[in-house]
TrEMBL record:
SUPFAM superfamilies named in the record: Periplasmic binding protein-like II (SSF53850)
UniProt entry keywords in alphabetical sequence: Signal
Name this protein carries in UniProt: Amino acid ABC transporter substrate-binding protein
Keyword Nucleus: no
Signal peptide feature range: 1-19
């Protein structure tokens, strides 16, 4: 279910800015941004985005959905921006990359009882790997020759990882996750104690960004970037 959060910042004396409303799309991606128990969007990425748009005096709506829906909305819809999105060669030309949010690392995780040990992508090819549809890891592994339906099992959200492990653990050997996301989830998800990292992907230390559809007006992009530079 999509949750909407409305924030309106009226730019006094600047009708051209205040008349434009951005749609922001995101996912639950703790610890960077997530909906807490009170239904509020929180986390350092969300706080940074909100503070920058507040400073820029841009009106906006925020939608929280699974990653694939948010990602495809940002590619398709002309007044839409997305966070937190990893920048990659495959995505570079698709968006305007407005400002950085933070960096993250990614690892393969396995059940401790499986006794899996790998130290290369080549060794990982022999296993069934759960990966979130359309996220950075999914696109990266595809670029390295991993095939959907063979090595890759596509899931819609991070929470689905633990559902799979609880009910159908025989169909997946590895999951590929953000280390920060796993660390945050381990504080509240008992099943996380059954997982262990088996290999960190060295060249997947990457920056997360606030990025916008190419059709967002340049005056809006400039206003947001100027606000970011004033604050950070």
């Amino acid at each position: 279910m999509v949750r909407w959060f409305v924030f309106l910042w009226l730019a006094l004396g600047n009708a051209s800015a205040s008349a434009y409303t951005l749609t922001l799309v995101t996912e639950n991606f703790a610890h960077f941004q997530y909906v807490n128990g009170e239904g509020e969007l929180t986390g350092p990425a969300a706080e940074k985005v909100i503070s920058v748009l507040n400073e820029a005096q841009i009106d906006y709506l925020i939608s929280v959905d699974n990653w694939s829906s948010s990602y495809n909305s940002a590619k398709r819809d002309p007044n839409t921006c997305i966070f937190s999105i990893a920048k990659s060669e495959q995505r570079n030309a698709l968006f305007n990359w407005v400002f950085p949010i933070g960096a993250f690392t990614t690892s393969f995780y396995a059940l401790k009882t499986a006794n899996i040990s790998i130290d290369s992508l080549e060794q990982a090819r022999q296993y069934k790997i759960a990966v979130i549809r359309d996220n950075f890891s999914h696109q990266y592994l595809k670029s390295q020759g991993f095939v959907e339906g063979q090595q890759l099992l596509l899931i819609q959200s991070f929470e689905r990882v633990f559902q799979l492990l609880a009910t159908r653990r025989n169909i997946v050997d590895l999951v590929i996750l953000s280390d920060a996301q796993f660390e945050h989830k381990s504080k509240s998800e008992p099943m996380s104690s059954e997982l262990e990292p088996v290999m960190t992907i060295d060249n997947m230390y990457t920056q997360l960004y606030f990025a916008c559809n190419k059709k967002v007006p340049s005056r809006v992009i400039d206003r947001i970037q100027a606000a970011y530079e004033r604050l950070y």
